[in-house]
């Protein structure tokens, strides 16, 4: 087997020594090319190169969810082709590693590498669905490049939190769960549309759902992790279905307190609910439109402000080694 290992040297939970151990373990079982990323978007370029080459059977992403997202977007540059494209394996190296953990991999890089080698030996492969987002035709966002996402996207409140966290990291702050909690509080205090949302969800053949303050689009469940605690925004979301949406139409202090409590106590059977929560399951095609530019994120990566985004849930988009 010929494999490309894409290594993010800035991955927060792996040291150079650990990376050397992982490389040695993988190289003992396959013909391995190792490339260390050098710039934002480099992992996507490497994924595209692998997809366009006939010499690569597998791409292994060593890093966090951002690295995985870039590799996936490179692999699917010309669209999904589960049988024709190289497979993907993920070695978690970030602070949260939602995609790898949702696949059932250990959150430790060494243990995950062992699990991947076992899966290769036993030929265990899973074909997963992915989410796709693009600017809506006929709007000012129609020229925004389309992107794939592996586990979540969001327009509004949660994307604002992601943006704040990125700003803090650029100032040298370490990415911790405490940092995320602080930015949630600050985003809440500064949120101008807490009581009157500006987002409308539209899907073919259905009545629009309007006045949403926050929208979280899930491709799997959990939505994220707080330490080792899984957070279920859309418990029914799955790699085997299309996309789920959790929409909130009010973020008053009582509503936020209730939603926060529900998220922290959420389970695979029950997530946030109530008269100010809208839950939609297994959506293949829908759009989110905002009356004002709002923060937008995909797989925990802040992508700027958007007013209109069209989503597609694509089943069986990519082969993953699990």
Summarize the entry for a quick read.
The protein is 29% helix and 34% strand. It is of the alpha+beta class and 322 residues long. The strands form three sheets. Strands 5, 6, 7, 8, 9, 10, 13, 14, 15 and 16 form a ten-stranded antiparallel sheet that branches. The protein has a four-stranded parallel sheet with strand order 2-1-3-4, sandwiched between helices.
Radius of gyration, Cα only, in angstroms? 19 Å
Distance between the termini: 16 Å
Judged by helices, strands and strand pairing, the structural class is alpha+beta
CATH domain class of the largest domain: Mainly Beta
Biggest β-sheet: count, sense, barrel?
10 strands, antiparallel
Number of helices: 8
Strand content: 25-35%
In the CATH hierarchy, the third-tier topology of the largest domain is known as: Tumour Suppressor Smad4
DSSP strand count:
16
How do the SSEs run, as a string of H and E? EHEHEHEHHEEEHHEEEEEEHEEE
Q: Averaged pLDDT, please?
A: 93
Helix share, percent: 25-40%
CATH-defined architecture of the largest domain: Sandwich
Q: Could you list the spans in which at least 5 consecutive residues all have pLDDT below 50?
A: none
Return the domain count.
2
Shape summary: globular
């Amino acid at each position: 087997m010929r494999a490309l290992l894409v290594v993010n040297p800035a991955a927060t939970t792996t040291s150079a020594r650990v990376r050397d151990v992982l490389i040695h373990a993988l190289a003992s079982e396959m013909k391995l090319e190792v490339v260390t990323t050098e710039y934002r978007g480099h992992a996507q370029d490497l994924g595209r190169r692998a997809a366009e080459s006939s010499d690569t059977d597998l791409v292994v992403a060593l890093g966090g969810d951002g690295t995985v997202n870039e590799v996936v977007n490179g692999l699917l540059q010309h669209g999904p082709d589960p049988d024709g494209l190289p497979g993907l394996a993920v070695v978690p190296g970030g602070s949260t590693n939602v995609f790898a953990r949702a696949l059932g991999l250990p959150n430790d890089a060494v243990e995950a590498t062992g699990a991947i080698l076992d899966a290769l030996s036993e030929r265990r492969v899973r074909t997963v669905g992915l989410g796709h987002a693009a600017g809506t035709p006929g709007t000012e966002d129609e020229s925004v490049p389309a992107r794939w996402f592996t586990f979540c996207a969001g327009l509004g409140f949660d994307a604002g939190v992601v943006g704040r966290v990125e700003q803090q990291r650029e100032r040298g702050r370490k990415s911790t769960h405490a940092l995320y909690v602080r930015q949630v509080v600050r985003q809440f205090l500064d949120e101008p549309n807490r009581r009157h949302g500006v987002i409308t969800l539209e899907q073919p053949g259905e009545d629009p759902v309007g006045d949403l303050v926050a929208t979280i689009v899930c491709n799997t469940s959990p939505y994220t992790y707080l330490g080792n605690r899984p957070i279920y925004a859309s418990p029914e979301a799955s790699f085997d279905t299309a996309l789920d949406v959790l929409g909130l139409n009010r973020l008053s202090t009582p509503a936020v307190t209730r939603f926060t409590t529900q998220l922290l106590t959420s389970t695979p059977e029950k997530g946030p609910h109530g008269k100010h929560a809208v839950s939609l399951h297994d959506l293949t095609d829908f759009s989110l439109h905002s009356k004002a530019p709002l923060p937008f994120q995909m797989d925990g990566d802040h992508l700027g402000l958007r007013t209109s985004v069209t989503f597609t849930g694509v089943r069986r988009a990519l082969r993953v080694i699990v």
